[in-house]
Amino acid sequence: MVSLRCKLLVKEILLDLDIPYQRIDLGEVLMTQPIDFKKLGFFREKLLKFGLELIDDKKAIIISQIKGVIIEMIHYNEDEPEVNFSTYLSEKLSYNYTYLSNLFSETQGSTIEQFIILHKIERVKELIIYNELNLTEIAWKLHYSSVAHLSNQFKKITGLTPSFFKAMANKKREALENL
After folding, report:
1. Which residue from 103, 121, 31 is spatially nearest to 66, judged by alpha carbons?
2. Helices 147-158 and 112-130 meet at what angle, rounded to 10?
3. I need a labelling partner for 110 at 20 to 30 A (CA). Which of 18, 44, 157, 176 fits?
4. Which of 21, 65, 68 lies closest to 11, judged by CA?
5. From its phi and psi, is residue 109 left (phi > 0), alpha (psi between -120 and 50) or beta?
6. Residues 6+ apart with CB under 8 A from 42
7. Through-space distance between the first and last CA atoms of the chain, rounded to whole angstroms
8. Across the strands, what pairs with 31?
9. Whole-number CA gyration radius for the chain
10. Can you list the residues of the chain whose pLDDT is less than 70?
11. Which residues, including other chains, have CB under 8 Å from residue 157's CB and lie 6 or more apart?
12. Which helix (H) or strand (E) holds 12?
């Protein structure tokens, strides 16, 4: 579950199947009691119908938790963590960061840092398209050290400058007869 919509969907499925739960977070559901095998099968089937899957492999669960913490922090959290991100992730998941980093790299084929950068750039794109904040405000909001750092990273990932991307996003579509 990587979005609020996914959380709502999972909640609806749990309620529909009368499965009691304590909490639903991005990428995780905390049950109040074990689920019987039959209900678990129904739960798994309903999730698959919506393109979601039940993860029960320990490593896959940890990877999902890592992604969930990153996505929540970048896309849904306004507050900057009081500590650096590696410490924040370690404290949040109760694992050593080196272990998390090695596991992520081994299973995903990229680093946690690359995953963070990709999500930050997607968030930058979103904020540029919303056109409510200027680039300085976006850099500050996403905890970049400077606008230049944001711009360099944006260009490295997208191949475009933020201002060119903004111009493209603002460009109106032409009517077919005007082409």
Report:
1. 103
2. 100
3. 44
4. 21
5. left
6. 17
7. 42
8. 21
9. 20
10. 1-2, 26-27, 79-82, 171-179
11. 117, 118, 121
12. helix 4-16
In whole angstroms, what is the distance from residue 132 CA to residue 138 CA? 9
Are 121 and 161 contacting, i.e. CB atoms less than 8 angstroms apart? no
Distance CA 6, CA 1 (A): 5
The pLDDT tens digits of the residues spanning 134-147 come to 999 999 989 899 99
Three-state DSSP state, 117: helix
Q: Which residues contact 129 (CB under 8 A, 6 or more apart)?
A: 169
Cα 146 from Cα 136, distance rounded (Å): 8
**Structure confidence at residue 35 (pLDDT):** 87
Task: Tell me the pLDDT tens digit for each residue of 36-55.
Answer: 889 989 998 999 998 888 87
Residue 120 CA to residue 80 CA, distance in Å, equals 13
The CATH number assigned to the domain with range 111-179 reads: 1.10.10.60
Q: How far apart are CA 76 and CA 82, in angstroms?
A: 17
The CA dihedral of 87, 88, 93, 96, to the nearest 10 degrees, is -10
The residue extents of the domains of the chain are: 4-54, 57-109, 111-179
Query: Across the chain, which distance is largest between two alpha carbons, in Å?
Result: 63
Count the Cβ atoms, other than its own, within 10 Å of residue 48. Answer: 11
